[in-house]
Amino acid sequence: MSISILALVLGFISVQQVGGEVDDIETVKVKEGGFLNLHPGLHDLNGDVQILWTFESSRQTQSTRVAQMHQGKIYTHYDKRLTGRVQLARETGILTISDIRTNESGLYKAVIIVNKKVTVQKYEVEVYAPVTVPAISSADTVHTSTGTSQGPHARNSATHPQTNQIYPNQQDSVGSCAEAEVLVRLVLSGLVGIATVVFLVDHIRCCTARRGAQSSV
């Protein structure tokens, strides 16, 4: 069967039922920039197999060929917008489109002819844009986390980060006072010791002088 006849079969199937079966449409969602993988719906592709994948968006009135396998050969040159991004697996008939874009959302259809038996597989593909996360600076992160966990006091601390530099820590003040007190005590102890020695020396001199005076009399 030639390619033109296969296209004619595709147009006929779009408005008719094949083999008495209603064509179900599966919905597929994929993130923009990712890979779109569509299975033809058949697992046994032995024998004389022909596959035609087409695409139709909501803004198009006519379907566009995406890829085709005919007489064992693969064709993916139909749409220039998909150049280098379309692959059709010969063994499975799976259609893969890389770097998928939002404007490529729409109806994808596969017409498979295996030993003169026609099967149709349809997919409604929705390509959604990735969700962007707003950038948060490090300063905003500290302010938000501290204020949320500790209340207004923490927010005031985050707003005035220089408070600890202006007012010394209470523990540092206590340590400084203790050191000053020890130093004062040492100085006073030294002065008391010196005064005691002077008093004793003067007392000894007086006693010696009195004894000398009594001896001379």
Describe this structure in words.
The protein is an alpha+beta fold. It has three domains: 3-128, Immunoglobulin-like, CATH 2.60.40; 133-167, no CATH class; 169-217. The protein contains five helices and nine strands; from the N terminus they run αβββββββββαααα. β3 (49-56) and β4 (64-70) form a beta hairpin. The radius of gyration is 48 Å and the shape is rod-shaped. It comes from Phoxinus phoxinus. Keywords: Membrane, Signal, Transmembrane, Transmembrane helix. Residues 1-20 form the signal peptide.
State the CATH architecture of the largest domain: Sandwich
Strand order in space, largest sheet: 1-9-8-3-4-5
Whole-number mean pLDDT:
76
The termini sit apart by 161 Å
Number of domains: 3
Strand content: 25-35%
CATH superfamily of the largest domain: Immunoglobulins
- The number of strands is 9
SSE string = HEEEEEEEEEHHHH
Assembly category = single chain
- Biggest sheet statistics: 6 strands, mixed
* CATH fold-level topology of the largest domain: Immunoglobulin-like
The CATH class assignment of the largest domain is Mainly Beta
Could you say which overall geometry the principal axes of the C-alpha atoms support?
Answer: rod-shaped
Helix content: 25-40%
How large, in whole angstroms, is the Cα Rg? 48 Å
Number of DSSP helical runs: 5
Provide tags for this entry.
single chain, 217 residues, alpha+beta, Immunoglobulin-like, six-stranded mixed beta sheet, 38% helix, rod-shaped, disordered N terminus
Question: How do the helices and strands line up, and which of them pair or pack?
Answer:
Layout: H1 3-13, E1 25-31, E2 36-38, E3 49-56, E4 64-70, E5 73-75, E6 86-88, E7 95-97, E8 106-114, E9 117-128, H2 138-150, H3 152-159, H4 163-166, H5 170-216
Parallel strand pairs: 1-9
Antiparallel strand pairs: 2-7, 3-4, 3-8, 4-5, 6-7, 8-9
Helix pairs in contact: 2-3
